[in-house]
C-alpha cells in the first residue's frame, strides 16, 4: 500500500512502531517483516538489537547530562538539560514497549504507549524552545524562563497523551481507524519542531557568533536525523529482508536518533563558554602565571624584605660584610667604643 497522509497502514507495514498494535481493526497493524526475537528466562524479547541501542542511549545521555551540569555558568544549561531528561525518560519507556516486556494485549500497554507519545511530543517541543534561549527573549536560568519551558512541556505532553488515548480508545471524534490526529502529533509535529530549531540555530550562529564551526554540528545532526527517518520509514522492510530478520528499520532509526541527540549536545557545548571566574567545580584548578618580567618568588620576597627594611629600619647590620661594617655609619661599629656590632670582645674573633 502506498503512502497516504493521516494513515499508519503503509508505515506499520514497514516497521513495528509502538502504536501499530493499537491501530486498525481487529489485532492491529502488523509489519510484513519482523526482526528476530530471543527468549530469556521463558520471556520472549522483541527487538533485542534495538533494545541495546536504547540502553546505550541511556548511558550516553547520563554522560551528556553530567557534562552539562558541570558547566555551571554556561548559557541555557538548565533549559537544555530538561530536553535530555525527557529524552532519557522516553528511552526508558520505549524499552518496555519495543521489547514487549509489557504485552501488547494488556491494558497497560495502551496507556504506556499514550504516555510515550506524549513524552515524544514534549521532547521535541522542549528542543524547539531551546532554540530560542540563545536569543535571550527571557534571561536563561530565571524562573520565568524555566517555568515557561516546564509548563508548556507539560501542556504538550497532555495534548500528545490525550490524542493518543482518544485514538486508541475511540472517543472525542477519533478512533483506531481514524488516525489523522495521532499522525499529526507523532509524525508531523516533530518534523516542524526540528525544522524551526535548525533554522533558528543557523540564524543564531551567523548573526551572533564569530566562529562558524558550530554549523558543522548542525549539518551532522540534521544528516543523522534525516537518515534515521529515511532508513526507518523508507527502507525498514528492505533492511529486514536483506539481513534475514536480524534487525529492521527501527534499529537504524533509533541509532540515528541517538547520534542526532548527541550532535545537539555537541552543538550546545560548542556555542557555550563557561566563565571560569565564577564557576564552581569539584576539582580545584591550580593556575601558574609565568611572566619573564617578574622574578622568581623567593627573589621577589627577598627583594621586598630588603626594600621594607631599608626604607623603615635602615640596612640590617647582619646583612653587611666585615668590610662594609668597618666603613658603615658610626652607630654600626665606626663610632664610640662599645657601640659597634657585634661588640668587640664578646663574641670571639671577628670574621
Automatic annotation (TrEMBL):
Keyword line: Cell wall biogenesis/degradation, Endoplasmic reticulum, Membrane, Protein transport, Transmembrane, Transmembrane helix, Transport
Biased composition (Polar residues): 318-328
Superkingdom classification of source: Eukaryota
GO cellular component: endoplasmic reticulum membrane
Recorded GO MF terms: unfolded protein binding
InterPro entries xrefs: Chs7
Transmembrane region(s): 44-68, 80-102, 108-135, 147-168, 180-206, 218-235, 247-268
Region (Disordered): 303-351
Key word Endoplasmic reticulum present: yes
Coiled coil feature spans: none
GO biological process: cell wall organization; protein folding; protein transport
Similarity comment: Belongs to the CHS7 family.
Name this protein carries in UniProt: Chitin synthase export chaperone
Source organism of this protein record: Pseudozyma flocculosa
